[in-house]
Amino acid sequence: MPSQAIKPTSLGMTGIRNNDTWTDGLPICKLSGVGMSANQMYREDGTPCSEHEYEDRSIHFCLDQPNGTYLYGVFDGHDGAKAAYFASQRMPAELSFEQLTGKTSEEEVKEVFREAFLAVENAFLESIDPKIAERTQLLDKIPDGMSQFEAAQKFPDTVNRLQILDQEIRGGTTAVVAMMHGGVLYVGNVGDSRALLCKKDRSGVLKVKQLTADHTTSSHDEIQRLATLNLQTTKIKGAKFGNHDLTRCIGNYFMKGGYKEFDILSSATSEPVIAEPHITCLPIDESCSFLLLMSDGLYKSYQDSTGSEQVNKEIAQMVVEQFVEQPTLTSVAQTVVDKVVRLHHDNYLTKQRNVTFRDDISLIIRNFNFQLRGALTPGATSPRPPPRLLPRPQPKEYLSSSNSEDMTLREDSDVLSGLPDSRLLPGIRGHRLDLLEGAAHSGDMHPTDTNTTSTESSDLQNPSLTQFSLDEDGRILPYVNFDLYYQAVEDAREAGLITDSQIHLYK
User: Fold this and answer.
1) 131 vs 134: CA distance, rounded Å
2) CA diameter of the chain
3) Contact call for residues 410 and 400 (beta carbons, < 8 A)
4) Are 311 and 297 in contact (CB under 8 A)?
């Protein structure tokens, strides 16, 4: 990393002037793109306006390019942006100063990753220690048992100062952080921001898998954890702790050191809201297509607008569609965000669903080997020519989703582009049916890419070179023959590679 970068102290960021941050010295990862949108509430006439400041923060850095160490993160702040900003600055510091040196096993790296989350938590709480101490001193000036109304009447200056301190202490943030190190992807999270990995299975089918755990009062695992702390599950299930339902986060002092002040948490035998991350690791190989990190504002806004029960799958499908349409990863990410924003607003205007507000949205896309429309192929000097277009199949969900290690193709889940990968139909009648990786429906057309001999390929891309024939009315006969294609699909059905219910997608 650059020598000019300065490690932050526990009480703030040293070496910062004006609006600069120490992470300005870190190189941005060019294999990633970011999309974002500020929160919106809707007036009666449908005009959107922000309810509060933008509280999300994100990072996408190359920490050590020679060794392939990259760091990505989305931090969704609540009750202010200060915790999210602090975490976005501190997390790279906890993983950039030789903490990973000599760590070769996955368990060693996972422990460094875990400690980084806890170090960020401790550093943030240390940074607000002076405010916590001042608050404690002011509370001692107010007699026990005095109501808030009486305190405001007799000690107005003290109460006003307490309100200011409460606001400054209250802030917290979720965190979903992905680190690539030594050819392995490590993903850790606290809160309800998510990481989705899209990869191909052994049959070449693109699937989406959630790598994170949602830490909320709606999570069965979290409710069971809280139950072991002497909290009643009937009270905490679906409940809100303050202004949110997070059971794990960075910061948010009142739900941690001050949890005894809340009736719903006062019986806990230890701090109920923690910063211990959920960590997943898996090797990065050629089956990995792309990674998505997102704040809950993205998937919840989409779910609120559609009522979908397969949000991960459908958001990933939107990303795939934009890979075909957009020339850069940033434009892919921003277009997906804009589509969800527009969908949410349209639902308010049409009153199809009861939506009146949406939260901040952040989306990071890290590409592994998915083909962008404007990207160069290896050895090429100009962008790859656009694929030929075929009529789009009837609308259907293309990605299958799974939260388990065994991601099998279910009968109601089809190949991403509506067609099988070439490995599904190897050597049928001497022909291969290949797809442009990531091809998906767009507009009214469906892009594909067909591998043939060099002569066949030239003729298909340049119809004017084909010898045309005329029918009896003088019209040009069709110059593309789909007989081999339909025969290949039929052979695939007979071989059990696709089902009868999927045939309509291919014909």
Assistant:
1) 5
2) 102
3) yes
4) no
138: helix, coil or strand? helix
Mind listing the pLDDT tens digit for each residue in 80-118? Answer: 999 999 999 999 999 987 888 888 899 999 999 999 999
**DSSP letter, residue 437:** T
DSSP strand pairing (400-402 vs 206-210): parallel
* 451: amino acid identity, one letter: N
Phi (first) and psi of residue 388, to 5 degrees: -70, 155
* C-alpha 124: how far from chain center: 24
Contacts of 358 (CB under 8 A, 6+ apart): 39, 40, 297, 300, 301, 304, 341, 344
- In single-letter form, the type of residue at position 445 comes to M
Residues of the chain with pLDDT under 50: 1-19, 376-398, 403-468
DSSP 62: E
What pTM did the predictor assign? 0.73
Count helices and strands (H / E) in the chain.
13, 18
Q: Looking at residue 506, what is its pLDDT?
A: 53
Encoded tokens for 502: 């999927």
**Alpha-helical regions (H) of 326-453:** 329-350
Instruction: Please tell me the distance from the alpha carbon of residue 261 to that of residue 263, in angstroms, as a whole number.
Output: 7
Place of tokens 């550093």: 123
What pLDDT is attached to residue 483?
66
Contacts of 76 (CB under 8 A, 6+ apart): 55, 56, 84, 173, 174, 191, 192, 193, 295, 296, 297, 359, 360, 362
Query: What is the number of alpha carbons within 13 Å of residue 192 lying toward its C-beta?
Result: 17
The Cα-based distances of 247 to 113, 172, 274, 288, 382 in angstroms read 20, 12, 7, 31, 50
In terms of Cα–Cα distance, which of 300, 304, 334 is closest to 318? 334
- 381, two tokens: 């000097």
Sign, CA torsion 471/476/478/480: positive
CB 277 within 8 A of CB 108: no
| pLDDT digits 0-9 by tens, 155-201 | 999 999 999 998 889 899 999 999 999 999 999 999 999 999 999 99
User: Up-side HSE of residue 230: CA atoms within 13 Å toward CB?
Assistant: 8
For the beta sheet containing 357-358, the strands, ordered from the edge strand earlier in sequence to the opposite edge, are 48-49, 40-42, 357-358
Q: Where are the beta strands (DSSP E) in 142-205?
A: 172-173, 175-181, 184-190, 194-200
CB-count burial class (<10 Å; 0-12, 13-18, 19+) for 84? buried
- Closest listed residue to residue 205, CA positions, set 392, 402, 420: 420
Residue type, 391: P
Phi-psi domain of 50 (left: phi exceeds 0; alpha: psi -120 through 50; beta: other):
beta
Q: How many CB atoms lie within 10 A of CB 423?
A: 13
